[in-house]
Amino acid sequence: MMDDAPPAAAPRTAEVAAFLAARMCHDFISPASAIVSGLDLLEDPTAQDMREDAMNLIASSARKLADLLAFTRVAFGASASAETFDVRDLEKLARGVFAHMRAELDWSLEPDAVNKPAARTLLNLAQITGAALPTGGVAEVRAVRRGDAVAIAAEAKGGKCRVRPEVLAGLRGEPRGEGLHGHWVQAYYVHLFVGDAGGRVFAEVSDEGVVFAASIPA
Question: What is the rounded average pLDDT for all residues in the chain?
Fold first, then answer.
């Protein structure tokens, strides 16, 4: 079991912003590059027999890029002026990302709507859970209202569950250390905005898998 006590020397705001920007660029560059590759094939007079493959590559990559952009706008960004989110819209965003992952999403939320911190927590923990199942499995995302708080749990089931140490460190509010910053910064960002909202986030790792959980004031 983890707690979310702040580290002795937390990363500065500018460093976190830089790591978040790098993380988003990393996510977007793959489908964007694939679209360019498809366009290059269309323009190549010696590759006209590959036009159908090129169009399929462009279409699938454009869908992935659009799904990631829509997801990121809410999970990492301000998402305009919205302060509450319909859970059906959040599910659509999560399923858009899971359409490009090996893991399957099992989404079951009790509230009809949640505030911005809870919405961000749901999306980020869902994606982190899916990433913990690189060979496939099921990411179960649950949320219930308990008094004046929303309790969230995201559990990785099946497959070979793997959670990077930097993800666990980030959720605890610890510096990155030697791990990959793209994995760490998402977890650290969750730690920051959950704490700012007056909530807490933690993970429980066992031989059976991992459960990410959070409690957010409603």
Answer: 91
